């Protein structure tokens, strides 16, 4: 079950064709978003981001408990219909970037299946595999790249059956990077020629996605997330996990001024201590970001990334954009998934619903 503390309804019901519900079971929160198709674009129908009370595993262990909760949420927040687009939990799906050559007479799909059959334990038939080309403009003879999603068939079947028994109709099962690409290409204007990086900082992993126009040219998973940061804080400051979460939610991180100099007016002893404890982990992330920037320049004839957007759980912490702005030479800002939508200004921006919003856009916007 969930508690209503921290829940929010982000838009009133407005006339329009309802799309599917974007449904994401995060490590600590359930997130649901539904958009409405209007003649002049999308509007926000309903949105909830609610913490678990008994934990995610307890909720997903019972289809009846889940069904009762979903009925309550639909009634309270105004979600319409039973169609959902959802994603597997990160702990049961593996994503990787695969580079491969396509010999004459063969297809990308055939080569990918062959390569992945050599990598998995057991039979490939025991897995569900999907892929998305990372570059779509590869010339003949050049190396191909694809983002691979791999999950055990048993885990996929169990999850889909749980949702079916809870009364939901699953239209599609996706992975986070696909939803984020859809969100970015649909929500941001005037960037057709720009290289953009989206850093989705989740509970256990962080995904760095680079888009050049609508073309995905880079996606990589790195070991950085809310859990590792909280564990470091608990260890160094001898805090309970709940106390560490409360501290980060309430105080955030130490703010940085121009050119990385500390702005003491936006800081205090507590936030300074928090940042100093977590700084080594952020420096590791910055190292990974810089590697991604170098790769992007090599793939786009030296063209740099013009803007970095932050989404996910860690993106909610106060001062996070200031921290990375001080450590990188590229403008960094927190992405509001609802920016520019009708009704989107009726809620406080919550970057944690970025994936759920991208899921909810499936079928409502043009996907490439």
Would you kindly provide a written description of the structure presented here, covering whatever features stand out?
This protein is α/β, with parallel strands linked by helices and 368 residues long. Among the domains are: 93-152, Dna Ligase, domain 1; 221-334, ATPase, nucleotide binding domain (Nucleotidyltransferase, domain 5, 2-Layer Sandwich). Helix content is 34%, strand content 26%. The protein has ten helices and 13 strands. The strands form three sheets. Strands 3-2-1-4-8 form a five-stranded mixed sheet. Strands 11-10-9-12-13 form a five-stranded mixed sheet, sandwiched between helices. A hairpin with a 3-residue loop joins strand 1 (17-25) and strand 2 (29-38). Helix 6 crosses helix 7 and helix 6 (226-237) packs antiparallel against helix 8. Residues 1-14 and 256-266 have low confidence and may be disordered.
